[in-house]
Each structure stands twice: as C-alpha cells, then as structure tokens.
Amino acid sequence: MIRVSLHASNGSVYLILHIRIQFRRVIQRPSPPTEDAVVATHPLMRQDLIDYLASGCKSKEKWKIGTEHKKFGFELGSLRPMKYEQITELLNGIVERFDWDKIMEGDKIIGLKQGKQSISLEPGSQFKLSGAPLETLHQTCSEVNSHFYQVKVVAEEMGVGILGIDFRQKWGIKGILIRLKGRPIWTLVLKLT
To answer: 112 near 101, Cβ under 8 Å?
Structure first.
C-alpha cells in the first residue's frame, strides 16, 4: 500500500510517501509461463478494460455508502501534534464514555471498533473513522456527527483540538509521529521546493 501526501513547512513543500509492505511467510517458486499467457488472442482494447472493471461491480441493490474521515489532534497551547500517549488517552476516553471496543497490537491500542465502524491510527498523529456500510447520506451524516461529538467531548476535556484536514503549516517533519503500529511502514520524504 502506498499513500501520498503533501506537507508544507518553513516555506518548503515536501512530498511524503507512506509505504506499507506486507511480507508473506510462504515462498512460492514461479511457474513457467503458459502458452495462454504468452500469446494474446487479440489486442487489449478500451472495452476489455471496461468489461473487466464492470465484472467486479455489485448490483445496485447491494450498493452502500461508507464514510472515511481523517483528522489530527493538536495541543491547544503549543499547536504541536498530539503525542502517542495523548492519542491513547483520547481513544481510552472514547472507549469509556461511548462503549467502543479496543483494537490492540500487543500492549498498544491501535484503534477502536463499534459494530461495523472503526477508528484507526494513521501516520502523522492522525486517526481515521471508517464508517459502517450504510444505505443513505442521511445515515452517514448522522454517523459522522456522532463521531465528531464523541471525539470533541473527550478532546475538550484533555485540552486538545481536532482538525479534519491533512495540512500542518506550522509543524516540521521531525514533530510528526510517523509509525504507530508494529507493522512495517516506511516513510519517504522528498523536498520539492
């Protein structure tokens, strides 16, 4: 998985690539190509690609709407990004007050789950709501408003602010928490200007 974001700091612009590599324990030897793989029966056309993508589509009766909303927290006094300990406190506060279940990796909390929705930690001190698959925009609006209310109540008690935006004009790269989870994530930062 590769995720790309831009970051501006002290008049410079950075392109940030977050790369997650999943290693598999089973190693398979490559098999030699078959005749079918080598010889194409006809040139690949635009319609071939359309048909391939359409074959994976669900019927209209199975369509759902799923919300994904990223946000980051910051200390109100210094405007610095939240530390992992503060994010942990925020997540634990949501668990205690609003009946979410913790998602743990070892002894570290890396997310929350409630029904078919979840909150996960992201690089850069961000956390993300992944909403349940819902029928209408009104339901997603209600879900997001409920999530915002829960986060706001706990955050205000802690003295932290929350922004639903991925831009940190004031923070340098060194102040951003890059790796929260135990899975391998590499972050490549390229200075553009």
So the answer is: yes
111 neighbors 120 (Cβ within 8 angstroms): yes
The Cα–Cα gap between 66 and 134 comes to: 6
How far apart (Å, rounded) are the C-alpha atoms in residues 126 and 151? Answer: 13
Q: The tokens 């915002």 sit on which residue?
A: 148
pLDDT tens, per residue, the chain with 193 residues: 555 565 565 666 555 555 554 544 444 556 665 555 555 567 778 888 888 888 888 888 888 988 888 888 888 888 888 888 899 999 999 999 999 999 998 888 989 999 999 999 887 678 889 999 999 989 999 999 999 999 999 999 999 998 876 555 555 555 454 445 555 444 444 444 4
| pTM tops 0.70 | no
- Backbone angles phi and psi of 53, in degrees to 5: -65, -40
- Where helices occur in the chain by DSSP H, the ranges are 35-38, 46-55, 84-98, 137-158
